[in-house]
Specification:
Keywords (chain B): Cell membrane, Membrane, Transmembrane, Transmembrane helix, Transport
CATH architecture of chain B: Orthogonal Bundle
Order of helices and strands of chain B: HHHHHHHHH
Number of strands of chain A: 10
CATH architecture of one domain in chain A: 3-Layer(aba) Sandwich
CATH superfamily of chain B: MetI-like
Largest interface: A-B, 29 and 19 residues
Radius of gyration of chain A: 18 Å
Number of strands of chain B: 0
Number of helices of chain B: 9
Family (chain B): Belongs to the binding-protein-dependent transport system permease family.
Shape of chain B: elongated
Helix content of chain A: 25-40%
CATH superfamily of one domain in chain A: P-loop containing nucleotide triphosphate hydrolases
CATH topology of one domain in chain A: Rossmann fold
Largest sheet of chain A: 6 strands, mixed
CATH class of one domain in chain A: Alpha Beta
Oligomer: heterodimer
Number of helices of chain A: 9
Number of domains of chain B: 1
Membrane topology (chain B): Multi-pass membrane protein
Largest sheet of chain B: none
Strand content of chain A: 15-25%
Main location (chain B): membrane
InterPro entries (chain B): AA_ABC_transptr_permease_3TM (IPR010065), ArtM/GltK/GlnP/TcyL/YhdX-like (IPR043429), MetI-like (IPR000515), MetI-like_sf (IPR035906)
Radius of gyration of chain B: 22 Å
Helix content of chain B: over 70%
Strand content of chain B: under 5%
Structural class of chain A: alpha/beta
Order of helices and strands of chain A: EEEHEEHEHHHEHEHEEHH
Distance between the termini of chain A: 39 Å
Strand order of the largest sheet of chain A: 6-7-8-3-9-10
């Protein structure tokens, strides 16, 4: 198992957001996490790389326990080299050009040389079709382009697992596709990914497994085929608009 | 021509230059120190400690609301009266203007840091950057770019306001000019030296401050672009 989550609990000010979450992620597996807004799916991702402190439970990465009391900021910096994350708001660093945005982590955190980091960054940019934008500043890019650069930035750290937190939610429809195409390409290369998304068709195509969350619990874990045709919970049926047999 | 006192100005030009040098020295040292101190204060003002915030906030308001002249008197005469030590008047001037500038810059830095979206921090953290790396590579360059126009603006205000230090006896350019005017009047009561001298001062301050003001406008455009 690459990642093991056991009995994870998280609350904000006495408000329980995650209740006893357990699941495993195998190497190379792509898991889509679905659910209504506020069901805790983003919080779950943020707990996995230490952006949120968990109340109890355990997260194991490569058979090493990464959560628990007394885990310092430095410890999380180490973990975050292996667990990359891409955010909805893409937040590139506005004072740096595209290439510097991507090479900052590899150079400063992993202490790789500028040449080596740039070489890999350019390869990634080429893969997402943005090679000619290497010297552009974030303000000169469209939302979709920014998000593709943000994905390159996370990938250049060579993470073992990549977390996607609603990465297309802030994008115009025509830009959603270009970002999803990049993620699909990563799946084909065997990258392990946890994807929180509202793009149902995309989740169905790209995921090996669907985790459906409801009120801070995992209500259903299923294959995409089964989940989208015959979800086992009533709530998931409602969520997918299956109950009345109508589609919009 | 004799009455305008231009020859007196030319004769005492080295002294006037010394006066300008004192003005610039106080302004420049205070500016550099207040930028460094201001960055530290600004970061400290984003702290979660209520006590620290309260103390800093009080000082900020004190330096904003109380005129720098009063601070000059407090530090200069206060130190002599209360602690019975005589601090060099140039040192007092630099100290007062450094604190004044530092709290102004500190507040700019604080407001910029708090206006940055949380995701800027989170995406730096998610890359595995340490806290110090986050400040050095992500926050500081942005803070510097965004606050530079205001810092240049502060520099012009600083240069103008340092004129006050003549009141604690620092021989800056205004003080020098006035003594030249007095000496000239003693010799020639009909001289128009004060008109000429103050015109000269006006030109001096304009030559120093106008390029700074243009620079500020240029920077503002660049930052907003």
């Amino acid at each position: 198992m690459l990642l093991k989550v056991q009995h994870l609990k998280k609350s904000f000010d006495g408000n329980t957001v995650l209740k006893d979450i357990s699941f495993d992620v195998k190497k190379g597996e792509v898991i889509a996490i679905l659910g209504r807004s506020g069901c805790g799916k983003s919080t779950l991702l943020r707990c996995l790389n230490g952006l949120e402190k968990i109340d109890s439970g355990e997260v194991w990465l490569d058979d090493a326990l990464i959560t628990g009391p007394g885990m310092s900021y430095r410890h999380w910096s180490e973990v975050r080299k292996k667990i990359g994350m891409v955010f909805q708001s893409y937040d590139l660093f506005p004072h740096m050009n595209v290439l510097s945005n991507i090479t900052l982590g590899p150079m400063r955190v992993e202490k790789r040389s500028k040449e080596e980091a740039s070489k890999e960054a350019l390869k990634l940019l080429e893969r997402v079709g943005l090679l000619e934008k290497q010297s552009a500043y974030p303000r000169e890019l469209s939302g979709g382009q920014k998000q593709r650069v943000a994905i390159c930035r996370a990938l250049c750290m060579n993470p073992e697992i990549l977390l996607f937190d609603e990465v297309t939610a802030a994008l115009d429809p025509e830009m959603v596709r270009e970002v999803l195409d990049v993620i699909r390409g990563l799946r084909d290369q065997g990258l392990t990914m946890l994807i929180v998304t509202h793009e149902m068709a995309f989740a169905e195509k790209v995921a090996d497994e669907i985790i459906y969350m409801e009120n801070g619990t995992i209500a259903e874990t299923n294959t995409p085929e089964r989940f989208f045709s015959a979800p086992s919970t009533v709530d998931a049926r409602k969520f997918l608009n299956l109950q009345d047999d109508f589609t919009i | 021509m004799q009455n305008l006192g231009i020859d007196n100005i030319l004769k005492s030009f080295p002294r006037l230059l010394d006066g300008i040098a004192v003005t610039l020295k106080i302004s420049l040292i205070a500016l550099v120190l207040s930028i460094i101190l201001g960055l530290i204060l600004g970061i400290a003002m984003t702290s979660r400690s209520k006590v620290l915030l309260g103390v800093l906030r009080t000082f900020l308001e004190a330096f904003r609301l109380i005129h720098p002249l009063i601070w000059l008197f407090v530090f200069f005469f206060g130190s002599a009266n209360i602690f019975h030590i005589q601090i060099d008047n140039v040192a007092v001037s630099i100290l007062v203007f450094t604190l004044w500038g530092a709290f102004e810059i500190g507040d700019l830095v604080r407001s910029f840091i708090t206006s940055l979206p949380r995701s800027q921090y989170e995406s730096s953290m998610a890359l595995g950057l340490s806290k110090i790396q986050m400040y050095i590579f992500v926050l500081l360059p942005q803070i510097i770019a965004r606050t530079t126009p205001s810092i240049v603006n502060l520099a012009t205000r600083l240069i103008k306001t340092t004129t006050l230090v003549y009141l604690i006896g620092v021989p800056e350019v205004l003080k020098v000019s006035q003594s030249i005017i007095q000496v000239t009047y003693l010799r020639n009561p009909n001289s128009y030296i004060s008109f000429t001298m103050y015109l000269f001062l006006l030109i001096v301050y304009f030559i120093i401050c106008y390029p700074l003001s243009l620079f500020e406008k240029y920077l503002e455009k660049k930052v907003l672009a």
